[in-house]
Specification:
By secondary structure, the chain is α/β, with parallel strands linked by helices. The chain has 12 helices and 18 strands. Helix 2 packs antiparallel against helix 3, helix 5 packs parallel to helix 7 and helix 10 crosses helix 11. The longest helix has 25 residues. Bound molecules: aspartic acid and magnesium ion.
Length: 431
């Protein structure tokens, strides 16, 4: 490996003892890799602590001042890690967002990276120093400090890896990889060796939050291979790559089961069936910046000339959405509006689904055997999602995990089904 970018999250840097352990690990990597850049988050809990301090003084602190405040978290951690490296005889230099520089737009608290200067980093790397870069922060064209949004150090790491054309971007965290399901629900969930960016995007947006989503999208754009691993244990972690070509693996039918409890459902019953009603209902919701996920409209009643429309939205927006839809429904002359906050979304994700029939029916059969009623279904090329009552979410995740034998890793063929082609071939050759 020529160039390596590593990122250590807050939990890996929680105390000076943790920082010393990270320094040991970095020192070991330094023996193998000539050009090493280490991106740090703030020490565990520090960003929350700073936000808490600000909120004690003002309910709505100025975004500019918040960013000046929050960047101190990473400023402390990079300096401490550099000190720990130097103490071990490893030459190191800490660099803040404005020293690198990482130029962003001026959206305080959710800034986007515009460009990255590499001269200063290259200079340090050439002198044999480990560059310890502050994650999560940048500087705008006016010289104002900015931050990239919570979890933004992941994005810093991927962006630096892309800019330096690193061979790999290693993200050290408190989990040792990406799992086939949340291990808190499925204790024997297995760690995936490889997952594609596309699958990861689906899994993450579905609620398995290992990485900041933006960093994954970024990695796809710039073809950066990411590896998620634990800073507490040794192990290869999970490689998140663009595609599986070059890997000796088939595309799995199902790589994982994701779940999301932060959902709510709203149904408008007896809407007059005429062009534009779905638009009018969903428009008021969108205008309030509420993100609608699944949408289902029933087949219209031939006699009544009415239809029912159901959609899901984040639970935090439920009350607002319900109120907006109620008043729009009155205007449209709909019969009734009902809402349900006690729902959850459960999804299976896998690249191989694209070209295989039978995955959906296998999923629905498994849920039916457990008596779990499906309220809504949505599919994409590589994902099947169902909405169910929230009280069944754990049962559903466990049931699906078992139905696709994910305890053995990603599912390559439907259980009980053998790939017909190879066996026919064998038979043909044997006779
Ligand atoms: N320290 C920031 C946060 O807690 C950024 C990061 O950890 O990635 O969100
Ligand atoms: Mg994080």
């Amino acid at each position: 490996m020529q160039t390596l970018v590593q990122k250590y999250g807050g939990s890996s840097l929680a105390t000076t003892a943790h920082i010393a352990r990270v320094a040991e690990r970095v020192a070991r990597w330094r023996e193998q890799v000539a050009r090493l850049v280490v991106v740090c988050s703030a020490m565990g809990g520090e960003t929350d602590r700073l936000l808490q301090l600000a909120s004690q003084l003002d309910r709505k602190p100025s975004p500019r001042e918040l960013d000046v405040l929050l960047t101190t978290g990473e400023q402390a951690s990079v300096a401490l890690l550099s000190i720990a490296l130097e103490a071990r005889g490893v030459p190191a230099i800490s660099l803040l967002g404005d020293q690198i520089p990482i130029i962003t737009d001026n959206a305080f608290g959710k800034a986007r990276i515009r460009s990255i200067g590499i001269e200063r980093m290259e200079q340090a790397l050439q002198q044999g120093q480990v560059v310890v870069a502050a994650g999560f922060q940048g500087v705008d064209a006016q010289g104002e400090l900015t931050t990239l949004g919570r979890g933004g150090s992941d994005t810093t790491a991927v962006a630096l890896a892309a800019r330096l054309q690193a061979d790999e971007c290693q993200i050290y965290t408190d989990v040792d990889g990406v799992y086939t399901a949340d291990p808190r629900i499925v204790p024997h969930a297995s760690r995936l060796q490889v997952i594609t960016l596309e699958e990861m995007l689906e899994l993450a947006s579905l609620g398995s939050k290992v990485l900041q989503m933006r960093s994954v999208a970024f990695a796809g754009m710039y073809h950066v291979p990411i590896r998620v691993l634990s800073s507490m244990t040794e192990g290869p972690g999970t490689l998140i790559c663009l595609n599986r070509t070059g890997e000796s693996m088939e595309e799995p039918l199902v790589s994982g089961v994701a779940h999301d409890r932060q959902q709510a459902q709203i149904t408008v019953l007896g809407v007059p069936d005429r062009p534009g009603v779905a638009f009018q209902i969903l428009e008021v919701v969108a205008a309030a910046n509420i993100e609608v996920d699944m949408i289902v409209q029933n087949i219209s009643g031939a006699v009544s000339h009415t239809t029912d429309l159901t959609f899901t939205c984040p639970r935090g927006d439920f009350e607002t959405a319900l109120e907006l839809v109620r008043s729009m429904a009155r205007d449209l002359g709909a019969q009734r509006v009902s809402g349900n906050e006690q729902i959850a979304k459960v999804s299976i994700v896998g690249m191989g689904m694209r070209s295989h029939a039978g995955v959906a029916s296998h999923m629905f059969a498994a849920l039916a055997r457990e008596g779990i009623n499906i309220l809504m279904i949505a599919t994409s090329e590589i994902k099947i999602s169902v909405v169910i009552a929230e009280k069944y979410v754990e049962l559903a995740v466990r049931t699906l995990h078992e139905a696709f034998h994910l305890e053995k890793g990603a599912c390559l063929a439907l259980p009980g089904q053998h790939d017909p082609q190879p066996s026919t071939l064998q038979e043909a050759q044997g006779s």
